[in-house]
Amino acid sequence: MMSSVTQKVLTSHLRESEQEGVIKRGTYPRVPPIVEYSTTECGKKLQTAGCFPFCPKAANRHQKEGMNFDT
Question: Which of 9, 22, 32, 50 is most buried (CB neighbours < 10 A)?
Answer without folding.
Answer: 22
